[in-house]
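Notes from the pairing session

We agreed to fold both candidates in a single pass and log them together. This is the raw record for the first candidate, unedited. Please don't reformat it; downstream parsing expects exactly this layout.

Candidate A
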Amino acid sequence: MVDKVKPAGTSEEVKPRSVRVVLMALMIAMLLAMLDNMIIGTAMPTIVGELGGLEHLSWVVTAYTLATAASTPIWGKIGDMYGRKGSFLTSIVIFLIGSALSGMAQDMGQLIGFRAIQGLGAGGLMVGVMAIIGDLIPPRERGKYQGMMAGVMALAMIGGPLVGGTITDHMGWRWSFYINLPLGAVALAMVTAVLHLPKKRAQGKIDYLGAALLTVAITSTVLVTTWGGTEYAWGSVEILALIVVGVLSTAAFLYAETKAAEPVMPLHIFRSRNFTLMSVIGFLVGFAMFGGVLYLPLFQQSVQGASATNSGLLLLPMLLSMMVVSLIAGRVTTSSGKYKIFPIAGGALLVVGMFLLATMDTGTTRLVSGLYMAVLGAGLGFLMQITMLVAQNSVEMKDMGVASSSATLFRTLGGSFGVALMGSLFTTRVTDTMAERLGPEAAGAAGSAQLDAASLAKLPEAVRDAYQHAVAAGTHSAFLLGAAIAVLGFAAAWFVKEVPLRGAGPAAPAGAADGEKAAPAAQESLAH
C-alpha cells in the first residue's frame, strides 16, 4: 500500500515513493491541460467539415483560452482558502465534463460553449499542479523535478499534433476530446488515493467583486490581442472600446483588492521584488516561447519545404534543449541553493536565440535553423521552471496558490501578446513583400493559397519564390521583435536578489525581506 503524502513543513516525513506517485498524477493532469490545444489544432479542419460554422472557427480556441486565463487566479485563491486537494480534484472533474460534452457537440455553437467549460477546468489544472508541488516539496528540493515538468511540456508540444492527426484519421475527431477521459480518471484516482493535505476552511468570503473585475480585465486584454489586426483593425471602434474597458476594469480591480478582506489576488505579494521580477520575466518568456512555437513550423514548412504532418517534430531541437537545460538547472539549484545565474543566463540565451532566428532566410538549412532553435530552447530551459520556483519562494505558504496562479497568468498573457504582436508584424511584412515582388493584385491572388509545402509546389515558380521570401521576411520581423522584448527580460534578471531557498537545511532560514531578519523555515515565513 502506498503511503499518503504529507505536505512540506509537517511533522510526518514525506515518503519518496509517495511523492513520485503523486507527481506522476500531477504530471498527467498537467499533460491534459497542455495537450488539449495541441491535439485539437490538427483536428479542426475535420471538425469544421462536419459541424460547419467556419466563420466561428477561431472561437473554438478563443473560448478555451479566455476561460482558462480568467479562471486561473480564482482557482489559486480557492485553493488557498478552502484546500488545495479539493479544488484540484474539482478542476479535473470540470475539465473532464467539458471534454465529454465537447466530444458530443452537434454544432459549432455547442462546441464553443463546451470548450469554455473545458477551459474553466484547465485553469485549475496548471495552478493546482504548481501549488501542490509548492506545498509538498521545499523550494530547495524542487529543482530536481524541473526536468520532469519540462519533459511533459516537450511531450505535449511534440506529440500533440502527431496524436491529434492519428486520432482524427483513424478514430474520428470526437476522440480528440474523449482521449482525455481515461487519462483524467487515472489522475483522479491517484490523487484521491495518495495525496493528503490539511483541510482548510477560511473565515472570509470569496472576493466576488474582485473576481468579476479581474475576469473582465483579462477577457478584454485577451480579446484585444486575439482580434486586433485580424478580426478588426487595431484602430477600429471595437478594439479601442475593448482597450478602454480593459484599462478601466484593471483600475477598478486594483482599487477593489485594497478593500477586500480576502482579495483574489493580494497586492501585497507584489511588494516582494523577486516575485514582481519573476512575473515580468514570466510574461516575457511567454511572449517569446509562444511566438517561437507558432512561427518556427510555419517557416520550415513554407520556406524549407518540410511536411506539415510532422510539424511537432520540427520543434524537437528547441524542446530537447529546453528539457535538458531545465533538468541541469534544477539539479544545480537543488545541490547548491543558488539560482540567480539562471535567469541571467536564460535571458541572454533568449536574446541570442531570437536574434539568430531573425537572421534566417530562404538559404538557411534545416541543420542551421535546428542549432538556432537549440539556443532558444536552452534559454527557455533556464527560465521556465526557475521563474515559478523563485515566485513561490517569495511568498508565504498561505499565498502559494495565488502566487502560482499569478505567475501562470502572466505567462499566459505574455503568450497572448506575443502571438498577437508578432502575428500582426508578420502579416504586414508578408503582404508588403509580396506586393513588392508581384504587385498588389498578384500578391492578393497568391495570398489565398495555403502556406504549406504541398500547396506551394503547385504554384508558378515566380509566385512560389516570392512567397518564400515574403515568409522569410515576415519571420525575420517577428523574431526581431521577440529579441527586443527578450532584452527586457535579460535586464530584469540582474535585479533578482538571491534569497536562500526554503528547505535548504534543518534550520535554514526561509529568507528575508530586504534588510529584515528571517524567521526559521519551520514557520514558513515570507521570503523576498
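Candidate B (folded immediately after A)
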Amino acid sequence: MSDDAEVVWRPDPERVAASRMAAFRSWLRDEGLVDAADYDELWRWSVGEPGAFWGAVARFFDVTFHSPPDDVLPDVAMPETRWFPGATLNYAEQALRPGDGKGDDDVAVIFRREDGLRTELTYGELRRRVAAMCAALAELGVGRGDRVAALVPNAPQTLVAFLATASLGAVWSSCSPDFGVRAAADRFAQIEPVVLVACDGYVYNGKAVDVRPTVAALRAQLPTVRAVVGIPFGGAALPDAVGFDDLLARHDGAPLEFEAVPFDHPLWVLYSSGTTGLPKGIVQGHGGIVLEHVKAVGLQLDLKPGERFFWFTTTGWMMWNFLIGGLLVGSTVVLYDGSPGHPSLRSLWDLAAEERVAVSGTSAPFVQACLKDGLTLDPSALPELRAVGSTGAPLSTDGFRWLSRNLGPSVQIASLSGGTDACTAFVGPAPDVPVWLGELSRPALGAALAAFDEAGHPVIGEVGELVLTAPLPSMPVSFWGDTDGSRLRAAYFEDFPGVWRHGDWITITPRGSAVIHGRSDSTLNRGGVRMGTAEFYRVVEAHPAVLDSLVIDTSSAGSSDGELLCFLVLAPGVALDEVEPELRKALRAELSPRHVPDRFVAVGDVPRTLTGKKCEVPVKRILAGVAPEKAVSREALRNPAALDPFVALAGAR
C-alpha cells in the first residue's frame, strides 16, 4: 500500500480551531486528563483508557444523570461489559432538554416529502407534542419496558412517537412501510408489542402506496397489540385505529416528564438483515446510545447547535436512529420521505441547498448512481455544505473523485463504516484529519479498531478481519430473547475470544486510515489471494453498461470446480458479449488474473435484503446445494423474484 495516496480534502486550520474536537481537547487539557497534540494521540488515549474517555464524553456533553454512576467501566472484558453501573438517565430527556440550539423558537425538525410537502417543528413544538403523545401512550397502557412497534415513514410524527416511547422507558422498534407483512411480523412478533403505530400509506417515486391492507394483516399477527395509533400520511384514516392527531389534541398541554431508567435499559430494538432465519433483535440501551451518538455527531461530524443535519434513510435502517441523534447536540435534523431519485438524482442535492444543510449523508450506491448518470453539481449552490457522508457500502475511488470534483475542495468526504450491531461508525471522518482517495480517515474515538489475520494477530497494510479489542457503550445490551447470551457470543466473539469480530474485511494503512473491502463471510479467495467483494464491484460497476452485479466464489461452497461467477444486470439493449471482454480486461488489470470470473451470467436483478444489502452469502449457499428456503427467508428480500434465476442455476449444476 502506497504512502503517497492522493489527498482529496484537507482540514482548514480556522475551521479546526473552531471545531468541537478542538474544544474537547482543550477541555481535557484543562481538566488534567490528557494533553493530546492531535487526533491520533487523542484516539490512542481513548482506547487505552476507555473508562476515563467515556467519563469525559459524558461530562463534556453534560449528560443528565438522575442517579450518578458508581463507576464508568469496572471491567473492559467483553461480552457482558457493564457501563456506568448505578447511573439512571433517559435518552429523550437528553434530546429535548433546553440548551444551546434548543430554545423554544429554534428549529428542531425540517420535514420534506417527495411530493413537495414541507413542515417544520421548533424545539418548543417538539417538546409539547412529545409530552402529549407520552400521556396518550400511557393512557393506552404503555409503561416502562413495554414495546411499541411502528410501521412508519420518516416523518415528524414518527420522531414524536419514538421520543414519547423513550420518555416512558418503553422500548421502540420501527420498520419502513414498504416492508411486507411477513417481514414486519417476523421482526415485531418477537418483541410482543402492546401498541402498533402505523401509517395509512406513503409516496414513493411519484406514486401513492396504500398500506392499510398490510397494517390490517400485520395487526392480525400481533396478538399482544392492544391499540393501533394511525398516522394519516397518505390522506386516509386507518380503520380500527385511534388517530395520531386526535391523541395530540386530547392530551395537549400535558407536562413533559421522563422516566429515569438504568444506563443499559433497552431503548430500541434494531434487526439483523434476516437473510437466514428470523432477524436477530439487537437491543441497545439508553445510556450507550446517548454517549456514542453525542461523540459521533458532536465530535466526529462536528455538528454544532443550530446546524442542519440530513441523511437519506428510512425508518428500517439504523441511519434513521443515527440521524435523530443530531437532537442530542442541538442541531436541526432534516427528515425526507420518498425516493432519492424522484424526479431526478438532483433532488437530494437540491434539498441540501434549499435547506442549508451543513452535513448531508447518503449511501455509496447513490453516489455511484449520480456518477453513472453524468450528474454535475454547482458547488456555489451549496454554500452551507461542509461535509457529505457516505455509508451502506464501500465508496469507490470513482465515487470519491465525483464528490470531490462536484463539491469542491472545501467539502469533506466523510465516508464511514460501522453497523446496525452498535448503531454507529467504527471508522470514518474527523474534522482535523485529511481524507485520502478511497480511504476512511481514522478509527472513531473510543473504537479500539484493528485488522486481525487468521491467527488473531494485528496487521498493518494487509487485509484482515475488522475487530474491536475493547468495548463500545452502544454495543448490544442483548439479542431479544437470548436469555443466556449464547447467540450474541456466537455472533461476535466465537472466532477471537474476548474480541468483537464484526464480519468485514479491512486494511489499516501505515498512515492510520482504513479501506473497507466488504463482508468477510463472502470473501473471494482465489489461489490463496483473499479479496473483499467490494473491490470486485468497484471495477465491474464502473462500466457504464453494468447497472448492478453480484459475484460469488463457489470454491468454498461445496463446488468441485470452484468457479468464480459474476452475475450482471445490464442496461437495456446491451448484450453480454459486448461487455464481457472489457470486464475481463479491466479485472485482470485492476485486481489480478486470479479474480477474472470463470463465467459471466446476465440476470434481470440482484437479490437484496429489505435494507438494500446484496444477498451474497444466501446465493452462495444456494449454489452449494442448500435448499432455498433454508438459505434465505424470501420475506426478508426487497425483490424475492430476483432469487429465481439462481435457484434455477443451482438445479442445473
